[in-house]
């Protein structure tokens, strides 16, 4: 069953809800630190981790949905502002972000939604299904890492010029439609590199939470992948 809207407390007022999607195969400290920093700096009521079922812009996850969901739950268990949301795993067909946001908008009709993206994902936004509708449903928050340049031309460059938030506070006063770029700590951790390392016998300690490491080591979920 997917996480229900009850996760947002009345005391949160109109603070925005962060939406952080990914295969999380496996979830690691790079994901967690970015989500935590964005949640703190943007005063988000919560960050909802949404594991993808069938991402249309990348290869299918190496690990089954149930195990990836278990790892996300284990990873975020000690952070009260983090929530797991399994709505994409419960929905048939490709995991289109616009459908996920539309579903969340039904659950939270009066709450600002903030889609959390890395710069690479933001640059690829115009290739997404119904991508302009994304801005009708949520703000887009771009996690900016040192060395990554903001686009100045093309559709994403124009989007930044037209839709850039004047301040962080503006994200809480409108439901959707703005773009905000926020610097985050750079942690060079890659899920695909983690899988390859584990397959070669490497230990993911200090790259993933201990609870996630335990699941990986006990299930040997990446030991026999054939990537």
Poorly predicted regions are: 1-6
CATH topology, which one? Rossmann fold
What average pLDDT do the residues reach? 91
Work out the radius of gyration: 17 Å
Instruction: Determine and state the CATH class.
Output: Alpha Beta
Q: Please outline the major beta sheet.
A: 6 strands, parallel
Q: Give the ordered list of helices and strands.
A: EHEHEHEHHEHEHH
- Work out the strand percent: 5-15%
- Which sequence of strands runs across the widest sheet? 3-2-1-4-5-6
Q: Specify the structural class.
A: alpha/beta
Number of helices: 8
Instruction: State the separation between the terminal residues, measured CA to CA.
Output: 31 Å
> What's the number of structural domains?
1
Number of E-type strands: 6
Overall form:
globular
* CATH A-level architecture: 3-Layer(aba) Sandwich
**CATH H level, superfamily name:** HUPs
How much helicity do the residues have?
Answer: 25-40%
Describe the structure.
34% of the residues lie in helices and 14% in strands. With 227 residues, it is α/β, with parallel strands linked by helices. It has a single domain (14-186), classed as HUPs (Rossmann fold). Strands 3-2-1-4-5-6 form a six-stranded parallel β-sheet, sandwiched between helices. It is globular, with a radius of gyration of 17 Å. It starts with 16 loop residues before the first strand and ends in an 8-residue tail after the last helix. The model is unreliable at 1-6 (pLDDT under 50).
